[in-house]
Amino acid sequence: MINSNFLDLKREYIFPIIEKKLEILDKSTVINLGIGDIAFPLAPSIVQAICEATEEMGKRVIGYGPSEGYMFLRKAIAEREYTNIAPEEIFISDGINTDTGNIHELFKRDSTVAVADPAYPVYLDTNIIAGNKVHLLPCTEDTRFVPRPPSYKCDVVYLCSPNNPTGVAMNYQELEDWIAYAKKWGSILLIDNAYAAFIRSKDVPKTIYEIPGARDVAIEFKSFSKTAGFTGLRCAYTVVPKNTPFFTLWKKRQNIKSNGVSYPIQKGALASLGCLEAEAQVESYLAQASRIKNSLQNAFGGIDSPYIWWKTPQGLSSWEFFDLLLAKCGVLCIPGSGFGKSGEGFVRLSAFTTEDKARFAVNRLSKIDLH
Ligand code: PLP
C-alpha cells in the first residue's frame, strides 16, 4: 500500500544531529554560518506594497487568482529579466522547492535522471520517491565543483547555478556544453537559478536563456526568496518555454493542482523588482561572502553566491571539521557530506549574516591553527 520508495531515502538528516550538538553549548555564543536563510527584515517598500494589497482586498472582492500567477507580475518579470521569454511562459508559484520537487511529474516513470553530487537535496530525494533511476555526477576540485555532461544519455538533468552548496557558478562555456548535451541526447535541463541576483562574474550568464538553443531544452527556476527576502512569504517562478513539450504539460499541471499564490504576496514580489533596498541586502551578503572567503585557505565559491565551500584541513572528515569549528571557534557550519558523497571533506559556510557577525566569525577563525 505504501510507496516503498520512501524507504530508499538514505540521506543522513543533518539538522537534528546539529541541534543535538548545540544542546550542550551556550547557543548565544555560537555564530551561525550554517543557515541558508535571510538575515535582514523585509524591505519597507515591499511591506508597504503587501499592506496596500491586503487593504485593497478589504475594499473589493479579490478571490482566487489565476493558477499560473497574475499577469502584472509575469509581464514585469518578462520585461525586467528576459529578452526572449514571453509572460505566458512564466509560471508563478510559492517556491522553487515546490516546483523542483514536482517537476518530475512531467516525465515518464522510467526516466533516467542526472543529479549533481553534492546537490541541494530536493532533486535527488523527489526522484527517489518517484522511483526514477538517478545518476550522480560528482563535482570535485577536478571538475571545478561543476557537473560535467556524461558520455551516456540521461533524459532529465538537474543543474543548480550559482550552486548551493558549493557556491560555484557555471560559466557560458560550461552551460553551452550542457545545451549541446541536451540537444544531442534529447534531454531536458532543469536549471535552479535561485541565486541569480548574486551573479557578478562577466562570464556567468544571468539566465540560461542568454545561451542560444536554451529555449528548446531548458526549464529555469527562480525565486524571490534570497533576492528579496521572501523565504517567509513564499513566491517564485518557473520558466517553461513554449518550444518544449513541457509548456502545455506544466500549464495543465498547475491548473489542476494549484490555486495560485496570494494577491498581496504577488504585489509584494512586483514591488521587489528593482527595489534598491533589496538589492543592497544582496550586496551586503556578497560583501560578507568575500570577507569570509578571503580570510580562508582552500575555500571556493562565494563570488557569485552567498555560499563558501571550504576544504577540510589535514584530511578531516566534514563532521570532524564541523565539531572542531564549533568547539574551538563557536562557529556553526554545515558538513558537506550532508549534501552528498562528494561533499565529504568539505563544509559549507553561509554569508547570510550581518557584517558584525561576519567580522566576528573571521576573527575567531583566524585564531585557530589548521596546519
Ligand atoms: N534552490 C536552492 C538551490 C536553494 O538553495 C533554495 C533555498 O535555500 C531553494 C531552491 C528554495 O527556494 P524557495 O524558497 O523558492 O523554495
Detailed description of the structure:
The chain is an alpha/beta fold and 371 residues long. 38% of the residues lie in helices and 15% in strands. It has 13 helices and 13 strands. Strands 2-8-7-6-5-3-4 form a 7-stranded mixed β-sheet, sandwiched between helices. The protein has a 4-stranded antiparallel β-sheet with strand order 9-10-13-12. Helix 5 (122-130) links the parallel strand 3 and strand 4. Helix 3 runs parallel beside helix 10. The chain starts with 13 loop residues before the first helix and ends in a 5-residue tail after the last helix. 44% of the residues are buried. Residues 36, 95-97, 120, 160, 164, 192, 194, 223, 225, 231, 236 line the site of pyridoxal-5'-phosphate. Pyridoxal-5'-phosphate binds at residues 36, 95-97, 120, 160, 164, 192, 194, 223, 225, 231, 236.
Strand order of the largest sheet: 2-8-7-6-5-3-4
Rg to the nearest angstrom? 21 Å
Relative strand content: 5-15%
Mean pLDDT: 96
Low-confidence stretches: none
Largest sheet: 7 strands, mixed
SSE string: HEHHEHEHEEHEHEHEHHHEEHEEEH
Q: Portion of residues in helices?
A: 25-40%
Bound molecule kinds, no repeats: pyridoxal-5'-phosphate
**Alpha-carbon distance between the two ends:** 54 Å
Structural class: alpha/beta
Tell me, briefly, the overall form: globular
